[in-house]
């Protein structure tokens, strides 16, 4: 298959990991009901993806995801080219888990929207759909970076930064955010939250301050609790990392 550039719909789910049900049964159930192409045809923690649903079954998918350290990747059936699921094994990151899907579909495709909403639950904070333009598809594998990036990634190292300054194509606000945005936006109540498809965007106090250089200043002034580590926890994590690196260097 020849290499070609494509535009992909990027869907991301942000949720409080400790309060969320397992992603694997949710993903498989939602894909089976709404978007069969999102079933994990191939999967694994590293490329090349060596797990195969036709050989290892759903049990193999669950077992390999449970053994992965940070992210677990999957390839669906075109037009679903790529997915990534957070894992629960790592404890060095913040409280927000992120899952994603890249599909060569139109933003208003109802199958994707139904699939996205089927994964939501009360501890889901935010789901967004945006378009990444000019990604490279080569032999069934999707490569970035995109020439025209999708919505910025909003939870580096598991710490939520806040909502994007510019609205995505569409998004869903979980219950905690719905209470903060419902007076400012036009949204449709669905799946326990608010579905936004256009119009005025949220209050600036909810925006992530992405241009800030200091990571501690990137977080929005206002957000629901429990989505990021406290300043003290972040400082302790950095100190522990610096101590560990210093100890390794000194031991050489």
Q: Categorize the overall geometry.
A: globular
The run of helices and strands is EHEEHEEEHEEEHEEH
Rg of Cα set = 19 Å
- The helix content is 25-40%
Tally the helices: what do you get?
5
Strand content: 25-35%
Output mean pLDDT: 90
Overall tally of structural domains: 1
Mind describing the biggest β-sheet?
11 strands, antiparallel
Distance between the termini: 48 Å
Low-confidence stretches: 242-252
Number of strands: 11
Return the structural class.
alpha+beta
Give structural notes:
This protein has helices at 23-34, 53-67, 110-118, 175-181, 231-250; strands spanning 4-16, 42-44, 51-52, 71-75, 80-86, 96-103, 124-138, 141-143, 170-173, 187-190, 193-196. The relative contact order is 0.16. Strands 1, 2, 3, 4, 5, 6, 7, 8, 9, 10 and 11 form an eleven-stranded antiparallel beta sheet that branches. It has one domain (4-250). Strand 7 (124-138) and strand 8 form a beta hairpin. The chain has 252 residues and is α+β, with helices and mostly antiparallel strands. It is built from five helices and eleven strands, in the order βαββαβββαβββαββα. The longest helix is centred in the C-terminal third of the chain and has 20 residues, at 231-250.
